[in-house]
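Supplementary notes (optional reading)

For those who missed the lab, this is the record we used. Protein: MoaB/Mog domain-containing protein. Length: 284 residues.
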Amino acid sequence: MLKFRSSVVMSKINAACVIIGDEVLNGKIVDTNSKFFAKYCYNQGIKLNEIVTIGDDEYQIVETLQRLCKKHQFIVTSGGIGPTHDDITYESVARSFNLGTKVDEECKRQMQRLSKPETRLDTVALKDFYRMATLPYGPRVENYYISDDLWVPICSIDHKVYILPGIPQLFTRMLKEFTPTLRKIYGLTADKNQYVRFFIRTRLTESQISAYLRKLQAEASEISTEIKIGSYPHFGLGFNTVSILGTTNHQAFLESLNARTIKELDGEPISAEDEESISNGFEA
């Protein structure tokens, strides 16, 4: 059965993701960054507690970040750092921390080296271009340049909030390449407990399994509040999936829950890869 288990290092870091953009809220684009970030946190052993989608609105950004900072140690923002009038993330995040913004000279040098804007933009366009280098500043701010071929940094405030682009290719690449630094910042090491997750497929309906799962969750919660029992319907496919998630310090107990659930629900184990493929196969 163990071949169907997935595990990663667990930490005590709580994370949140803030997706910023009117274009997400009005349906123009589909947010994929939060999905990537959820997987990223799981793979790093970071507990993702909240994903928030808000518009390009200063009050919303400030209020959201100030609220999230009270309970989270790792917060990323995605979007709103371009050159146009509605790109207000840098200014709004700075205001959340009572900081100002100014053109960051290192970012400007990187822009000039890679993009040579003075050779192709008029005065007005050049001013808007350098809005993307107008970053929060002060001793609480640190900018991480991920690669020599990217001028946009990950702007970090208090090693708590990290401002990233909304473009999915950049968001995913920059987070991946930032991982070694992130692990140092938060002291993520391999000597901690690990997440463990089992998936079980059953032909029974959710109504038929709900009483059993409710009892199972109550029993598991007596052992650890980190143990989560989930149920995922797959409409039209003739089966549902049960998830058992916990940590390796409860390995034997989790394995017993897995074996019992397979027997009680006349189920069979399914890999995490197969479950993801099934869950994300639907297109609206």
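If you only remember one thing from this example: The longest helix spans residues 168-186.
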